[in-house]
């Protein structure tokens, strides 16, 4: 099927600013659509991507799962008559295998992957998966490859501005799934505090005490059933020994578009937004990374799109705010 593969226009100015959900596979401009020969059936991959700090480096975590395919309405007459559509299969100077090797991001020799969501073997066609990062300034390419249609990856890279792709590919079924957007992380200024992205985890069991414990339960899709418990986790950096924090967790109506309009890292909870939890967080005993996790339940929320927001206020410092869109389903 022929689809829109190009990123939004904003990518020309700063690719790292492409927000999650902006680089879609919709058929909005059929004259730029094409079907890659190695996977004519390309679909969206649902992901939850989060950034963490490791010294002067960026640790990217990506949990993923294929999205259920929706059959879009197509205008076959327009597609067949439009002379600007390029049929990549018409290139006769390459064999089929050469074309696939050239265009398939999974065609390279696999390195040892770092997936950390073990799955029971499934009786389905084998699926290759990977997390890819491309530095928007130098073009440097980073990747980690693995097996399976769902799971999670982690990849450590220098701080900077990147295009991220979380992708899966079934050679036998000639199907593929992907999610692409931009992300960045600046170095932490000496003497300042910082917070990681918010990571949503499955409910149940004990609270994790570290990111390594939390990752196997990261939700690739932040859809939560009414009355179902879940966990939220984050890391803090640059706290002083014994420095306590006031934490407020709340929800606002609206999803990613709501975050984008108000500025994800600059906004605070609206005055009338429901507050889920408030507490005083005791300071660390030693200098270093501080991991935090809480279990939540939102039984009174109607189904719909929301933004879960965590505000962290340190005495004498600027408050820190992180957010993650969630969807409540019946």
TrEMBL record:
Compositional bias per record (Basic and acidic residues), positions renumbered to this chain: 86-101
Location of the region described as Disordered in the Swiss-Prot/TrEMBL record: 1-39, 63-125
Name of the protein this chain belongs to: Uncharacterized protein
């Amino acid at each position: 099927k022929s689809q829109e593969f190009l990123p939004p226009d904003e990518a020309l100015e700063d690719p790292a600013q492409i927000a999650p959900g902006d680089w879609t596979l919709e058929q909005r401009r059929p004259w730029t659509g094409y079907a890659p020969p190695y996977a004519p059936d390309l679909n969206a991959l649902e992901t939850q991507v989060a950034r963490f700090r490791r010294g002067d480096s960026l640790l990217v975590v990506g949990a993923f799962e294929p999205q259920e395919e929706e059959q879009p309405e197509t205008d076959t007459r327009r597609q067949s008559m439009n002379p600007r559509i390029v049929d990549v299969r018409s290139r006769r100077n390459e064999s089929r295998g050469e074309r696939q090797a050239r265009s398939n991001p999974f065609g390279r020799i696999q390195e040892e992957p770092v997936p950390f969501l073990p799955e029971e073997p499934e009786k389905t066609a084998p699926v290759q998966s990977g997390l890819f990062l491309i530095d928007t300034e130098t073009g440097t390419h980073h990747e980690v490859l693995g097996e399976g249609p769902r799971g999670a990856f982690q990849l450590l890279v220098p701080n900077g501005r990147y295009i991220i792709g979380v992708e899966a590919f079934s050679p036998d079924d000639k199907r593929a799934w992907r999610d692409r957007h931009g992300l960045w992380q600046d170095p932490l200024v000496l003497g300042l505090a910082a917070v990681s992205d918010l990571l949503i985890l499955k409910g149940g069991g004990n609270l994790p005490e570290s990111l390594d414990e939390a990752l196997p339960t990261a939700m690739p899709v932040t859809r939560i059933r009414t009355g179902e418990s879940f966990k939220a986790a984050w890391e803090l950096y640059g706290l002083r020994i014994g420095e306590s924090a006031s934490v407020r967790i709340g929800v606002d109506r609206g999803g990613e578009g709501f975050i984008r309009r108000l500025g994800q890292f600059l906004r605070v909870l609206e005055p009338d937004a429901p507050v889920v939890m408030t507490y005083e967080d005791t300071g660390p005993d030693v200098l270093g990374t501080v991991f935090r996790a809480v279990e939540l339940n939102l039984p009174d929320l109607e189904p719909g799109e929301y933004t879960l927001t965590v505000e962290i206020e340190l005495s004498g410092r600027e408050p820190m705010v992180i957010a993650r869109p969630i969807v409540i389903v019946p």
